[in-house]
Amino acid sequence: MPKTPSSRLFDLIKSLSGSEKRYFKVMNKAESNSKYWLLFEAIEEQEEFDDEALQKVVYGQEPVQSRKYSELKAYLYELILKSLQQYDEQTSIDYQLKTSLQSVRSLYRRWLLPDCKQLLKKVKKTALKHEQFATVLEVLDWEKKLAYASADINYFDAHLSKIQEEEALYLRQMSNIKMYQGLFYQLYLMVRKNTVRSQEGREKLQQLAQHPLLASEDECLSFRARILYYRAHALLEYQLRNRAGFHQHCKQLVALVETRPFLLREDAAEYISILSNFATSCGYMGQYDEMRVALRKLKAVKPKTIDDQLKTHRQYYTNYFGLCINTGNFEEGLTVLQGHLKELKKLDKNLFERSSFYFQYVYIYFGVEDYDQALTYLNEWLNLPRSVEQQDLQHLARLLNLIIHFELENTILLTSLLRSTQRSLQKSGRYNTFEQFFVQCLRQANQSPGSRERRAIFQDNLARFQQLTLGPSDKAMLRFFNFACWLEAKASGTTFASVVQSQAQQTAS
Q1: What does residue 258 show for φ and ψ, rounded to 5 degrees?
Q2: Whether residue 136 sits in one domain with residue 42
Q3: How close are the terminal C-alpha atoms of the chain, in Å?
Q4: Around 321, how many Cα atoms within 13 Å sit in the side-chain half-sphere?
Q5: Residue 231 CA neighbour count, 13 Å, CB half
Q6: Is 166 contained in some domain?
Q7: Does residue 366 contact residue 499 with C-beta atoms inside 8 Å?
Q8: Do 421 and 439 contact (CB within 8 A), yes or no?
Q9: SS3 annotation, 430-453
Q10: What is the SS3 assignment for 186?
Q11: Taking the CB of residue 225, how many other CB atoms lie within 10 A of it?
Q12: Which residues contact 150 (CB under 8 A, 6 or more apart)?
């Protein structure tokens, strides 16, 4: 049975940023007529991996020897990795420090000990600035090694105890960071697995909240530990549904990381995540001016990798759409959406899931009363595969489908949809209070002949809605879409957008 062609090389080339590709080409321009150059450019042009097509580009009508083609791909793979290492040496402190220590080793082998000492002094200063404690420990080892090699007893006598104290300090700091990392990753795993829903998960969360390292910032022995301290607290507050606490810790975290901008340049991904969480927390608290500041900072981040670029795009637009939806600024949201769609054309569709935005597309087009476009994206959203855990979203999509057809005045179709939706919701085994109320409300409105009668029906149902006793599944539904504002808009004869805007202004004040 023939082996399936490996896409490793294809995936590697597709992961390169524009500047990384340019660097590779500049470093290897002397080989621009070679087969591996043809292969590189052929993969650049491909949208989907097609090994047979690549062989035709490289070999044309020549017979293809499988072994030689495999060797060509392996050679190009290694060449790209070497190019990336050279590229990273220019931009990564970690690589720069490792290269400097290799230079120390080269100088030592040639017995240029004064040069070794001079270079080690620079490495130590840079490593301490960036809290690269493992590198500092290597520097201290080299200091002892140089003194021993030159039989410098006076140096040992004067500095050995100080070096040992330094080593103990940096080991404690490294251990402290590792412990905070462990706490943070435990919390992160709980968030991703949503284990807090179980009694066991809630108990574990409470245990982590009482951990001695989270009692006070004074337990942090380094700047990196303090970042992890605040990130862990932000996750805790998020899981405990404490929105004020989540916002407070996210805000403190942004202020903290921005005191050392050189670290932000080193790790853009962490800053992207921190800003995104802060923007989200501002949305929870109705702090929309703060949210806009966070979004401007997020947009200004210079991505270092393709992954950074994708994350920045996803988090920026997810939060910006959320801002426009929550404040009722749907016209602004439409402008932002159009910019987002334009940017999407530049992103690799194999790496970016546009479908994750479909619900926000529906909401924004609904808000500007472009119901045809809202229905188009709703249908695309409905056609996505759903899991059992996404039952709330399935129910929401069905109710939105009813609303849009009501707005489009598809009276006959809506009559049929109301019946089929009710059957479907009943069959699911969870036809909750709000869903029953809403289907009945739309049925009454759809059967009403005139706008005045419909408004009276919505006024009555708005009063009924305000008296409903809602369970957890009802409240989950209402968190996704502002049904209350839509009912109020229909009852008052105004637009959905204006009611949402009024509500947002009251919340902000």
Answers
A1: -75, -5
A2: no
A3: 69
A4: 24
A5: 26
A6: yes
A7: no
A8: yes
A9: CCCHHHHHHHHHHHHHHHCCCHHH
A10: helix
A11: 21
A12: 113
Indicate the Cα dihedral angle 330, 332, 336, 341, nearest 10°. 50
Task: Kindly give, in sequence order, each residue whose CB lies less than 8 Å from that of residue 234, ignoring residues fewer than 6 positions away.
Answer: 246, 249, 250, 253, 277, 281
- Within-domain flag for 458: yes
Residues 418, 442 contacting (CB under 8 angstroms): yes
At position 407, the amino acid (one-letter code) is: E
Asked whether the beta carbons of 296 and 282 are under 8 A apart, the reply is no
pLDDT digits 0-9 by tens, 147-185: 898 888 888 888 889 999 999 999 999 999 999 999 999
Q: Rounded to whole angstroms, how far apart are CA atoms 103 and 270?
A: 30
Query: CA–CA distance from 277 to each of 224, 231, 249 (Å)?
Result: 18, 10, 10
Confidence of residue 315 (pLDDT cuts 50, 70, 90): very high
Q: Which residues contact 115 (CB under 8 A, 6 or more apart)?
A: 107
Cα separation of 120 and 223, whole Å?
Answer: 23
Q: What is the CATH number of the domain that holds 367?
A: 1.25.40
Give the tens place of pLDDT for each residue, 290-299: 999 999 999 9
Domain housing 464? 355-509
User: Quick check: 246 and 284 in contact, CB under 8 A?
Assistant: yes
- CA pair distance 352, 260, nearest whole angstrom: 31
